[in-house]
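FIELD: query
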Amino acid sequence: MTMAMSWSEWADHDAVALADRVRKGDVSPAELAAQAKAAIDKVNGPLDAVVEVFDDAVADPVGNGTNTGGTFAGVPYLMKDLGPTLKGRLQEFGSLLMQGHRPAEDSFLTGKIRQAGLNIMGRTTTPEFGVCSSAENSLYVTRNPWDTAYTTYGSSAGTGAIVAAGVLPMSHATDGGGSIRIPAGANGNIGLKVSRGVFSLAPGLSDLSGLVSIQGCHSRTVRDTAAFVDQCRGGAPGEFMPFWSPAEPYSELIKKDPGRLRIALSHEWGDYRATPHFVAELERVGRFLEGLGHHVEWALPKVDFQTAFAAQTTCYISNFAQVIAGQIARLGHERPPADLLEPINIKIWEAGLDTTYGERSKMQAVFNTTSRAFGNFFEDWDIILTPVTALPTPKVGTTEYLTVSDNPSVYDWFGNLWKNFAYTPLANLCGMPGISLPLAAQENGLPLGIQAQARQANDGLLLQLAAQIERAIGGKWNAGLRPGVHVTGA
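FIELD: result
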């Protein structure tokens, strides 16, 4: 098969650049889709990151509902196998329980993505219901393209691998506690979790009922992420809260450097600490930012971290229990079938199904005090910088973070998660933005994302800082390195 461009040329284009090529008449959306499918065929064997390719969407992007006159002009895009629905397409949540499930309607965000010009041509892997830290179960085992002995993390597992491997410049991701930022960090991608009130969860959920869930993408350039947010943001009719827009589109804002920022470094969140190597990498990035003219020093919000993580655990258990309960009821089961649902998810259902209003009220009170504490912190600081994770990325087969774990206590299982994933979930609890930038490396050779967080609705400042960094490093994220499994490889 003759490709529209060489693999090196393909990997050098971000989504904005590919769209420009379409508008110039150099390449068609169908040719882009065909090359993306060939890229999947080239690398998915060792990665196991793509669940399905929609052959009809490859052959006919316009017939797939893609607005090829939109900003992205038919650039291929993959959807994580949970979140926004596609009418009549399979959506199986990484679960044996959900095999064969076909939603009856498109989500509101699906329409925004198509209108933006992205051609949704398939699905990427996720752990069962997006609950745990990597996609490893009887359906698939998604591997890190930098070293396939290691996990991608999750729950945006397939997206993390496929963007890093050069298959697509951008792909869908979701984040309920770090699931955009954590796999972005371990795979060397850019991963922005936006503030509340940006991407709609309609019609099935709202920012009130979803509470911690955020939509988004992985990309390899700041301008792709900025353009995605610009084009796909906005509320559907009947939202429970106002949706907001910035004074200036992010695609324009990122062309200007931010002013001198007050940047706090931190890695000691309650009882949780990063490894010495991660701390050294954080300090190195801090010095780099000082070189860009910013004020950098160690500082920490006055947050009761342990109470906050306990409230977050209550939220996850009670929310996921209701999701599981709804699905098993739809399928006619009285309880989760042990042969179709993973052990930790069954324990979540058992622990959370009868959560009382009083327990949720206490949880929400902690959400409030935690959010106020971060709000007060951001009166004095513009950005807080942390590693994305506290511990090295584990190898495939490490079950302690998986929902196939045999841990008898779901609370102990969550407590163990926080030892590694302490730095991301409170942004979801508070509704504030966070971005993972591929600025560091782990001792095992995998990328290490450095996370920047800011006050609510300061998403644009995070993108401005990211764009300033990108210009300063000449666009060479990950020190200009590419993973071992990549479309440009043999």
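FIELD: remark
The CA atoms of residues 358 and 364 lie 10 Å apart.
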